[in-house]
Amino acid sequence: MLAAIFEFLFKYPRLVFEQGSFAFGATRSMSAVALIAAVAAAYALWTYRRLAAVRGRDRGLLIGARVALFLIVLFALMQPMLRLKVAVPQENFVGILLDDSRSMQVADYAGGPRSGFIHQQLGKADAPLLTELGKRFQLRVFRFSSTAERLQSTGDLKFEGTGTRLGEALDRARDELNGLPVAGLVLVSDGADNSENTLDESIAGLKSQAMPVFAVGVGRERLSRDVQVTRVETPRRALKGSSLVIDVVVTQNGYAGTKVPLIVEDDGRMISTQDITLPRDGEAETTHVRFKVSDLGPRKITFRIPVQGQEEVAQNNQREALIDVYNRREKILYLEGEPRPEAKFIRQATDEDDNLQVVLLQRTAEATVSVPDKYLRLGVDSGEELINGFPATREELFGYRGIILGSVEASAFTPEQQRMLEDFVDVRGGSLLALGGGRSFAEGGWGGTPLSDALPIVLDPGSRGPQFPPAELIVRTTPTGTNHPATQITDKAEDAPAKWRDLPPVTSLNPVTEVKPGATVLLTGINERNKSQVVLAFQRYGRGKALVMPVQDTWMWRMHAKMDLKDKTHHTFWQRLVRWVVDGVPDRVMASVSPDRVQRGEPVTVTAEVSDPEYKGINDGRITARITSPSGKTEDVPMEWTVEHDGEYRARFTPTEDGLYKVSVGGTAKDGRDVGRGEVNARVAPSDAEYFDAAMRAPLLRRVAEDTEGRFFKADDTAKLVDAITFSGKGITVVEEKELWDMPIILMLLLGLMGGEWMFRRARGLA
Amino acid sequence: MTLGRRRTVLALAMCVGVAAIATPLAQRSYRQSYSGNVRYDGKFVFIRLSYPWYGGRGAPWAHDWPRGETHFLKIFSELTSVQMHVTESSIMSLSDPELFKFPVAYMAEPGFWGMGDEEVNILRNYLLKGGFLIMDDFRGRDWGNVDLQFSRMFPQGQWVDLDANHPIFHSFFEINSLDIIPQAYDAGRPIFRAMFQDNDPSKRMLAIAAYNTDISEFWEWSDTGYAPIDVSNEAYKIGINLFMYGITH
Fold it and tell me: Any residues with CB less than 8 A from the CB of A188 and at least 6 apart, and which?
């Protein structure tokens, strides 16, 4: 409607004004006439100024009206015009790119699927848009989804493509039309691009070759009835028996407030379900889903919400994730500086977990002048392990995956051992948990040591020793701690607040209140004076993570008189905390694949980080990735050192079968020593990415169009598409002048001003 | 009466005499010097368990108190890195909920020990949650009472006689032979009996009974010349090992 009014008033559509350049076409004689008119206008003004009958605002209005009148006449006399570069008919090429992906089946265009627009407007030789384009341009038609190719007939479109890669499609069309006079590319798509690459390079290429993109967005920008499991973030690996807390992001339209079950399945077997209330339309809701992984090997975990009535896209109600569940005993070194119950109860808790091996090195007597420290060793694998106390070499220390540091003073370590502790986190990528006690943290002289850099708390430089009597702390979770896997003491989230409330207090000798900027606090404690202090906090440091727990007696959660004998809170807490402590700690060979889910024929990049026993990267090794296909075929792919990072190797392979590919990386160092092995899986399956975020993405299409000097059109408003290409100024063009002096708006303004002035004068008694 | 028998009788008479003097002294000292229990602060506290006694003066649970633990704590503190209250100790009954803040407890003369039904449940919980009980200073037919009281907590519980290979005899000092453990009675060789969780010796030890001996007797009189120094030393060594094991296992 507005466009019609515009065209009526200004004679031409808005597009012409946007594409054209403004100019005056008056000849010299006409300019002289205009000059005379200007003099006449000046005379008129002068006479107005002399009129004694009109004063003040009235005189200003009359002068203004008269000046405007003369200016409009002057403007018309100067013969205003638009100069446009117009594509010469049939001399230019236009590439038409048709989206052939699955998302074009979504039924949100004119009561039918999006593909209906292509069928109606471009599907046949006499289809309206195709006909109009064909009248002015030579046409080249392409189809695209994951790949792009020339299309002989629109009948070949199946709308079954499992991916949408706009960048590759634009690149393909640009290459095909390279060297030809191109007026533009018409991109017909819902814009649901799901490639991992940005469009920046493709857009830059189009700009450099002056190929504007005229994007036609098909579908609605927001689906009216749809529930979508938008994002699921899972670890790639998990220790057998681990309780995982996974963030599942759900979005929806049309079902706000509806309660639906969120189901988790392990290869089809339900392992968890919980009811969630769907958020408001268009909003995202994050749900924390808990479940335990018990079965070994690569597990396909599905997060699913049952399809609701009348959903426009049913396929996006579930997400799949691949989690490699492994089984081994994670070995953790627990160094305790004094015999105390905390160590005993922690071991009782972790000993119940077959996947944890907490090796306790407990100092039972301190060194004298002639006798070294005396240690009690529990949980060691051999009589030789830790026979000389705390490891003196990196190789020995880095053999553990986690360290628990009890109440032990800094001076119990040599300077090199203190550096080793820091490097255990920073370089080896291990996890270190420092517990509270009379010899811990600032109270144990740890301020200013290398390890203090790794810890997530600020050590009080003014500490005068442990606080006695110790602070009694009621422990509470922080908002982050409420849903953190390390602090889950109940199987059901709703039971946790009451459980934390019922736990007896613990005590602390270390008044830790300040954390570093990058730290995350999971548990806090409130003392008798209602002041809070840190009970559990962590931060990432280098490749690993460092945690602190400045309390001395979590064993109260087991032993206290008010705790029921059957209550396993203490055991659960420590098992889950220690499991999280060692979660993600790297091995000497760490292999990864990118992406971890592909379709047949798509390349997979294997990256491996290979380290020596001190976790220094091994360069120049003979490293090979053994690829085993789902059918059992094996292929050895040599990996090359990337040079960018020490110990980083890379290789590529292209899967040809659907299913699970196993990738095992191993080899030898330059000196011939075996480096060990690291394994990872890659899943090859048709992608379901097309069904996610399937609404038409106008902003993306608009950006592609505008960045290439083209235009964006919605599918139901393509009437000006052909003109837009015609006037784009690209390709072989001629200059066309469009006169503007006879625009209806000029006549209307003239009449309006004259009439208005006359009426005003009458009203004032001047006429 | 042979010379050997006369010596035995003489020794017995001396023991009885010493006990007759020592016990009232200990009780008087208890009444005079006991100033209340130590408040929990995370440090180790020597906990002596009390139990009902209706036999007049000289409650058997208080035998060797306070000199026994006073001497022991000095040695224990001197030799180990356990953070502890050295000059204070506590006396607790099973009905005191504070007991659960101290996972190692000591009981003297369990031959005279008795419990109400509620206390049976409390001590059972204490032991199964992670507590550790050391029983000392009893002999002969006293065992029957210890067995009876434990059978009330653990009807299927079985006692296991330990040998010197058990880790408890190596938790601090290396005690390679139980023959060196001092004998305070005339009831045969000292026996160390333990009860384990689920009657499985590979699992946690719940309690240990130093039967046919009185280790704390040697602690108590170690500063008087009552026993040879090397014998007292052995008593301290076994005591430290028992407590160290209880704290660490």
Answer: A96, A97, A98, A99, A117, A118, A122, A216, A218, A715
